[in-house]
Amino acid sequence: MPARSWGVLAVLCGAIFLEGIDVAMLNVALPSIRADLGLSTGMLSGVVSAYVLGYGGFMLLGGRAADLLGRRRMFLLWLGVFLVFSGLGGFADEGWVLLIARFVTGVAAAFMTPAGLSLITTTFPEGRLRNKALLIYAGTAAGGFALGLVIGGLLTALGWRWVFFAPVLMSGLILAVAIPLIKEPVTDRTPVQGFDLAGAVTITGAMMLLVYGVVRLEHPADGWPLTVAAFAGGLALLAAFATVERRSASPLVRLGILRSGPLVRANLMAALLTASFFGFQFLVTLYLQELRGWSTIQTGLALLAAAADVVLAPTLTPWLVNRYGNAKVVLGGLLSGLLAYGLFLGVGLDWTYAAMLPSMLLIGLMFAFVYGPLTIVATDGIAEHEQGLAGGLINSSFQFGAALGLSAVTAINVAALAAETSPQAGLTALRTALVAPVTATLLAAAIATIGLRTRTRTSDRVPVKA
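Above: the chain sequence. Below: its structure as tokens.
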């Protein structure tokens, strides 16, 4: 790999690491933010939801914008926006300023992330070189979520505003290096002949309403009518979007791309993967901090073992993919995750960390064997001028799954806890909520098995795709 290509990969990995660490650090700092600014529980929840709405709502539009308007241009522009509004969050003295800052930061990430992914898939030729680059990229992304918990705890000890200022410094450094280093890939990108405004409005509105509905599942006591209305409105706009795209001369999303079986299966498994992981991570955090009394830093260090994929993804996973193919590696990773969650079902109030460690390490294996290969499958074989769209789809699935997993375990945990507040009642509720990650992983493994059997019937060789 040429030195310049390594440099481009390092910059893009830095950006996805920034996105992951930004989310994780904020979650750790929320109690300190509420104490300092006097925010209500609803406002504090809104700060988190604002980012999710911006990210999930604009991801598909961001992916297509990279294809139509230029990947380098979109990446650099929205990295700059990310920098500015991250800084705004650090200077906030009112809750509404934080809401605006987090929403626009989420929108910036929604445009920046698929542009970065498509820069990789169009810079590196399809095959082993691209696979290795994607696996390094995926491992870095997962590492950002894991390391962000530890770094967020350390920065919050200095002051919660550093959770916002640290991404400003990091994004400024990435931007300074990216401007001279990254070039627009020479691809068969179709010239812009018209912009599908109706498609952009309907898909963005649909995604925002669906994500909002999922977020509201965390608060079942707030009233189901609004939640049902959000889902109904989202589905209605989704149907309107499909109608618009069929009639549009320059569709925002070519619906024919969804006829790819590997792409659809990869996106379904991506949503189920992050639903299980983020749901499990949330439950473990509750267990360690609320039931066991561990500090934020201790909790982050405990979850650090799950970041083993940072090492495994660029080293062991490429060898396994080349030898066995993506489908078998993904299935093996999902089975590792299923075993991890199954082992944790027996968690007790007197468990030592040694008893938890096998689950943490197996979670790291799952992410190393599933996250990157799914990204490969979702972008492999897609035309160059639709790589941004493919990147937007897979990242939307990851984001939507994370929101769904968090909402599901929260709703189950609250319902199971009922009016009891004893540690034993909390432990029982936590074990009940663990059913959600187990179920999501089982479904993902079933989809992986179907994909493996389909591939076996259609080819006698072991191709790169799952």
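The chain has three domains: 1-182, 198-249, 259-456.
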